[in-house]
Amino acid sequence: MNIPRRAIGPLGIALVVFFVLPLLVPATVRLLRPADQAEELGEVEASAIYQGEDGSLRMLRVMKHSTTQDDVFVLLDNDLQARQLLGQPQRIVLPRAQLRQPARLRSEADGQLSLLLNDRHWWLRQPAQTAFEPMDAALRQRFAAALGTGVSRYAFGEQREPGLLEVTSNTGDRYALYWASGELYPWAERLQRWQQRPWAQYQQTVSRIDYADFDTDVAQYGLPTMLLQFAQKVRPGEFERWPRLSVHSSADQQVRAAPRLYQPVSDGFVVSRQALRDAGITQIAAVAQVPVQFSGEVLARNADRVLMRYDETPTTAAEVVLQIVDARSLQLVWRKSSRDMPQLLLDGAQLAAQAWPGGFYLTTSANLPALVIDNAGQTLYDFQPQKRLPSPGED
Q: What is the pLDDT, as a whole number, of residue 106?
């Protein structure tokens, strides 16, 4: 039986919640939980991988359970190799939220860890610290004119804006916060401020690879994407933003009408010169080693590797392919289908990843820990050895 692709996500979530999650959460907790741990833990809300000062690989998990009046968060820090708890768990108790909001955890570029609890409280942990510190008061003090009345909601920005924290004040005003660079902008101005940077004055560039969407009136099929390599100007200390570019066919009517407005990236395909200027991009070309792929997306990147996912065909239901590309040579390092990775529930739907210097940490449906792989794609830690349930429509 073929089920429409848009229905697979909700059906898959239901399967995970009612059948898989009760089995996997206790197993994951037991894997790293000390035998004498008496604290009630609840469910895994969020997790992250980081390296200790001694080079050991560590895992931070945010567990949550609720009482009649409170939401209780227990933060567990483990050495993955020794499977040993590091220090005492940090316990944070907040008034119970009326609407369930999962904890959100993000690794920052400077090694800090950001934590959002109930989307109302922001906590930050410095690399040398062992505990998170509440940031609400410091934020109100630093930006008293805009946020002196307090914050009603926090949200992390998308992956393309890695340092962005979306902040809504108690007066209902929405802001873009870049804590590391000390910048706070009205939300509606963030894109304009980025595009109007004086790129010609910038002396440094960085090399990036990323997917571009096809925006063409010819050869419309599936959701094709093209992997591009480009050089983007940067100024140290400023927040980063990675553009989502669009590729046009040189046969498109708009391109034929004004060809000088577009720059070639490969045989038969071009990008808007204005889009390149707005993003401070100086050089750009297609990655010849990687063919056109469907629904391509960069999941995470470190200094040496880029982890990507894509659909193998335009009609493949939910199944995805993962690949690692060398960030400098652009050569393919590793590729594997989610069908060969049973830890990635629902054929890799709702897959997310976080980079660490030596590889990547994969989480699957319902934010469950799945795998830690190195920069060559080899599995270092497997959190879910259980057999995956068939996806809807599979035999």
A: 92
